[in-house]
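Try it yourself: sequence plus flavin mononucleotide, in.
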Amino acid sequence: MLRLHELFPHPIIQGPMAGGASTPALVAAVSNAGGLGSLACGMLSPEAMLEQAWEIRQACSRSFAMNLFVQTAPAPTPEEIQAASALLKPVWSQFGWDALPLPAKWCEDMEAQFEALLQVSPAVASFTFGIISSEQLAQLHASGIFVIGTATHLAEALAWQNLGADAVCLSGVEAGGHRGTFIGEQEAVSFSTSELLAQVAPQLSIPVIAAGNIVTGEDISSALSAGAAAVQMGTAFLVTHESGIHPAYKQQLLAATTDTTRQTRAFTGRFARGLDNRFMQVMAEVAAQVPAYPVQNALTAAIRSAAAKNNDPQWMSMWCGQGVARARAMGTAELMRDLISHCQTH
Ligand SMILES: Cc1cc2nc3c(=O)[nH]c(=O)nc-3n(C[C@H](O)[C@H](O)[C@H](O)COP(=O)(O)O)c2cc1C
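Structure, out:
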């Protein structure tokens, strides 16, 4: 098995970003520049995973990662769905609807996604929201795939290490998007990236990847000197030309001059960090009552797609991290050059 620094020359991982941000063009551009691009597959069908991996390979012959959510399909009762829909009524009634359109399915089938992952056999596979089985780990390793788990505290990092993962991504509370917490209550875990590097990294023997509020080359240098083998950056790549997010969302990110993010579980049923907006405000009081991921995520899909159609960022989920005000719009190749030239690797 190759070691982390043998897989890609510069210790920069473009974080997987589900929902359309991490396009094949973004992934390929990062890997071509000597970092590790990651394709977010958590919300992709197996067919879309194969197609997008093919697109990446057309544009790039270097290592890239594919990322999955560790999840099982839920089975909510009709009463639970009705109650959840009622909690969302103050939002969907804004669109003039008589009822909330229900989704065709709650989430992708992780087993089928895992088969597609093995079929593509990327250099790296990363996982969040849970931990895979030892059989799955053995299958990945038998295919020569380097495995990265996501952790938000020590017990999770040790669980991945004990399983036999090759590296662990320590995700601080500043990070954009969903909390990866899978042991304990999400709201009880709030370690910052630097706390995780100082307190968790020394207790591990596998390489550690730091994620959360890393935006510049100087931030990368600091994380590396604090013990990280590499960094994983999301928000910085969200505003690149290759990022696939909605233009109105990108505009809001670029307009941020300070940290106006907060965490909410109202969009998806799992705590996630993004720009504050009307959806978060309207749902604030009932956010604790919405059903857990992925049910709430599927239930709000129609709202988010109507908001996208209307170019209205107030009802979209605008995931990003606390470093949003420092993210700069540019091409990915240019951003990578800038990051590499401002970071001192040792
Ligand atoms: C829009 C968005 C979507 C994300 N989706 C995923 C995902 O599908 N899987 C994952 O492991 N992490 C996901 N993340 C986390 C990122 O990969 C990365 O770890 C995080 O953004 C790092 O923090 P930063 O935003 O402060 O740079 C997402 C982050 C954002 C902003």
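One thing you can check immediately is this: The longest strand covers residues 64-69.
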